[in-house]
Amino acid sequence: MIDILLDTVLDSIKILPFLFLTYLLMEFLEHKTGSKAREHIRHAGKFGPFWGGLLGVVPQCGFSTAASSLYAGRVITVGTLLAVYLSTSDEMLPIMISEAVPLSVMVKILLTKAVIAIISGMVVEFLYVNLLKRREKEMDIHVVCEEEHCRCEDGILKSAVKHTVKILFYILVVSLALNVVIGIVGSDTLESIFVSVPVVGEMIAALVGLIPNCASSVVITELYLDGIIGAGEMMSGLLVNAGVGILVLLRLNRDQKQNAGIIAVLYGLGVFWGVVIEWMGIIF
User: Fold this and answer.
1) Residue 60, Ramachandran bin (φ over 0: left; ψ between -120 and 50: alpha; else beta)
2) Contacts for 52 with CB less than 8 Å, ≥ 6 apart
3) Which pLDDT band, with edges at 50, 70 and 90, does 66 fall under?
4) Cα(162)–Cα(159) distance, rounded to whole angstroms?
5) Taking 90 as the threshold, does the pLDDT of residue 272 lie above it?
6) What is the C-alpha separation between 217 and 222, in angstroms, rounded?
7) What ranges do the domains of the chain cover?
């Protein structure tokens, strides 16, 4: 147990500089381009799912929460909202950068998420409007005014430090828990839980991904980097991983039946695309 604890701490300390530099860059992008990206989605109209899927990939603070707020105020459509959710991947990118994952691998994953998000958003939008004959309510700007921010107003350096400390804590906890489980159960046994029965692995990963907390994306990313889950399970979990955006949706959007439907569709899409990726034998 002492060896496991020591290895976990040392491994986490090794990635600390890379983690901080990554968040420093992300904070710079957020402060320089974040508001412009959100404005672009606000005025995207019928091309909302395209821009939502494309811009959602860019690591920006609170992008999914902004999309939830905009949807609650009916500024964007349900297809655009789902596109943002599917393309956002919370803490995946910083962890992969800090773990020295090859750039080509990260680009493939991000591009795959963007393409899936755009296609899914457009299909949902088409079915919602043309098949179900649904129309969104009129814009309610008062709800938009309640938009929750991720409290990144402290300046680039201070915000980067806060994010780094927060995620480093999650990495320590998650890594320690995984190392203990692997030490007790064995990596082969743990891996078999995900791959022994088709689709079950993707369903479990997507359930973990739905947890509105940074820890969920940390768990999924770490499991993938450790080789315990495959590309399909990883993608299922990260596609549905919209962070606290879902909590904001539940708080601001008053139609809880609609909220349940959106979450169910998000989960279904995550499982579906994960199964497709696994079936096609795609490896990143």
Assistant:
1) beta
2) 41, 44, 67, 76, 79, 80, 81, 82, 83, 84, 87, 117, 118, 121
3) confident
4) 5
5) yes
6) 8
7) 2-279
